[in-house]
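Posting this for the archive.
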Amino acid sequence: MDFETQAAQLRVVLNEHNYHYYVLDAPTITDFEYDHMLRELEELEAAHPELVTPDSPTQRVGGKALESFQEVVHRVPLQSLQDVFSPDELLDFDRRVRESGAEPEYLLEPKVDGLSVALEYENGVLIRGATRGDGQVGEDVTENIRTIRSIPVKLENAPASLIVRGEVYMPRKTFERLNEERELKGESLLANPRNAAAGSMRQLDPKIAAARGLDMVVFNIQYTDHAPFSTDSAGLDWLRSLRFKVIDYQLSGDMGQIQSAIFQMGDQREKYPFDIDGAVVKVNGLTQRDALGETAKFPRWAAAYKYPPEQKESVVEDIVIQVGRTGVLTPKAVVSPVRLAGTTVTNATLHNQDFITEKDIRIGDTVIVQKAGEIIPEIVSVVKEKRPAGTAPYLLPTACPVCGAAVVRDEDGAHIRCTGAECPAQLLRNLTHFASRDAMDIEGLGPAVVEGLVNAGMVKTAADLYRLDRDEVAKLERMGKKSADNLLSAIEKSKENDLSKLLFAFGIRQVGQKAGKILAARFGSLDALAQASEEELTAIDDIGGITARYLTEWFAAPQSRHLITALKEAGVNMESLIAPVGDKLAGITFVLTGELSSCSRKEAGEKLEAMGAKVSGSVSKKTGCVVAGEAAGSKLRKAQELGVPVLDEKQFLILVGERDGDGAAVLAQLKK
């Protein structure tokens, strides 16, 4: 069998399995078997690039990052629907439809709370994906759309032209998993699945979108040169035959039945993998739709029923405190059981101290609990006339309920956070951060391995990593002796890291990579830094008063001192090993754009910082220089508009002393 035939067969088989897994939710092979075939195709395409096709499963991981999104004028506008909020308004909609002379059959479908997009196909090939925007003009997000595995990139037996509309969403399980991972890494949490989906679609780097696990359901044919359909449902069935993931629908000519189905859908909304914020009712007959027409804003043949927030009384039986993986203390009300939106609620979020104080929520209070489109119920208000005598205002504790360390309030928000360096509640997050690339850079020690070590009781602090037993590690799931050896070698190697990486690994608030480098260079050792006063710290450029206070408080805490001692005993380096190259670029702010052949942009930034420069991510009037590599985009254009000096890669290398040339002349050019 020749390579071309082999690659073609692999593509067919893999795409078939993708369809069963991502569209039908009925996988036919194991993940291991799929991954084995995918790797075989990847190796074939790597050896023979001419075999790569647009519909290859290998092209789903995300292509080159963009500088910006291009505008797309929709061939057919992506209309919005008129909202209705009560059964009476729904009956008014039905009356208006029937007054037009129609005896309608209605199509009912859940209203997915996501991001509306249009997919455009020519001769069965996906050529464009665009956001709704204002309905007339959206943004071209084709590269991100291609990463969604349930969207076909090539259609069989398709018409010459087809545009479909659907909703991109983040499944709730994916959203929860992603937030767990972000919490472990100390990143800000995503607000809700809808915002997460919208934000993912607008990532300029498709690889980020690919990692977000998005999905999509199709609910409309916007345009096609296929023979016309008589009903919307026939068109949706046809789209399903083309292997689109199509929204589930119900049909009925009785508005009473439609209403009952809407209420049932609301009660059972948690059965869907996506959030829904209502139900959509459409006239199914396309000829009837044409006759009904549309207003300046909405079609007259459809309405979106929005579920009102369901509210009921309950009693706050207790308030408990949960300590999250980032140390945030989150209060939760334990309430007497109450049925809301199809589920029994026994807990309600209280968010933070400000929320409790503003609503004056106390243990024993009768409260109004609400669960609208959200999964987690919350307290709307207190029924103060039912408040028992003797209740007291609730205040969060001043010490962590898990480890006993002091708690502090964020300067820039309402969160109260545990300061314990060895707090068990934060262990997974702290260890994951400690091992991350920009911290101690322990290869192979990702979140899954960290969780395995913690669950096995092998690690209770970061210092325990340096006392792991190879045979015990090898017994962990998916490890084995070779993986254990590699992991322990990486841990041992991390002992030799510069002090700056250890400082960042500690996770001290507001002490990032840059501050870690500044502090390591200034004090030379961890012991010297630990003895520094706030006044000494604030005298350093780029170290403000708040950061100085966080540093002195962290070093003064008993858990921090215990961790430092244990790491010293383990042989972890606590000295600065990197001597600054100089400060000849001090006072100059650089912005890097495009691709450099000699190094990554991150490495280039480190070279500049070692010479005293500052590196920024955006161009402004204060920018001193832009280093432009291949395929530089909007940042280069803005620099040219503002008259900011621009260096190419050759000039950059001369400036940092890695290529022969007159570095002084290049520097003089920047200081004009």
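Residues 3-23 form the longest helix (21 residues). The two ends are 65 Å apart (CA to CA).
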